[in-house]
Write a structure and sequence with these properties.
Helix content is 50%, strand content 9%. The protein is of the alpha/beta class.
């Protein structure tokens, strides 16, 4: 791997590589403020086409302040190397991974494009959208997501659940909380759970809902509301 460190103020020769994460304004502002106090050169990494592989925020900060930009040209890097280098500086978020892989997809039916649409449309956390669409939880599902191997298992089933979840919004504003979504999704898998019945009950007894810190407690609350006014109480285990 060939490496050469150079310095320039010709910012226009640089561009962003497709698939890298978007600029985080808050992070950029922190770097700008730090550089205004004291500028310690830290080279960005570019490829032979002057596409920025690592150091997007440092580049933007130098450009904004008119500071000399130090850069190191390297060969042989791919997007996996870019993500690894970025994580050392600032951990990638779910949104970063979604943006990165989505930008590489050529159609609107790509899994990361669908995931991005899904979480925006239904206003749910990224992690929950991932779990609902992939019908999987845990470390394995997360590793596949980060590796670009995320797959949509059953879009019709996922959107059906999300539409049901969205109908809860008028009666329970915390419907977006991860613990609540985990709880209601688990109960929804029970054949005895009827969505229409629950929506009717929560509409009448929304005041009986309460905030919880975990899914198990939410399941108890949901069960209580579900059984309000019913002679035949159902125990969801």
């Amino acid at each position: 791997m060939k490496k050469t460190i150079k310095v320039t103020k010709n910012y226009e020769q640089f561009s962003y590589i497709k698939g890298n994460r978007i600029i985080n304004t808050n992070h950029l502002n922190k770097i700008v403020k730090s550089m205004e106090g004291k500028y310690v050169p830290n080279p960005i990494i570019v490829n032979g086409n002057y596409e920025i592989l690592d150091g997007q925020h440092r580049f933007e900060a130098c450009k904004e302040l008119g500071l000399p930009l130090y850069y190191m040209m390297t060969d042989g890097w791919n997007l996996d190397d870019v993500r690894t280098a970025n994580i050392i500086v600032r951990k990638w978020s779910y949104a970063d991974y979604i943006y990165s892989y989505k930008s590489l997809e050529k159609t609107d039916t790509g899994p990361y494009t669908i995931l991005d649409w899904f979480i925006r449309k239904y206003e749910i956390p990224n992690e929950c959208g991932l779990q609902i669409l992939s019908n999987a939880v845990g470390r394995t599902a997360l590793e596949k997501f980060k590796a670009g191997k995320f797959e949509v298992q059953n879009l019709q089933k996922a959107t059906s659940f999300a539409n049901f979840l969205f109908k809860i919004k008028p009666y329970w504003q915390s419907y977006r909380k991860r613990a609540f979504i985990t709880a209601i999704r688990s109960m929804d898998e029970d054949a005895r759970f009827n969505r229409t019945t629950f929506l009717e009950r929560i509409a009448r007894h929304s005041m009986k809902m309460r905030e919880c810190t975990n899914a198990l407690d939410y399941m108890d609350v949901i069960e209580y509301v579900y059984n309000c006014g019913s002679r035949d109480k159902i125990r969801f285990d």
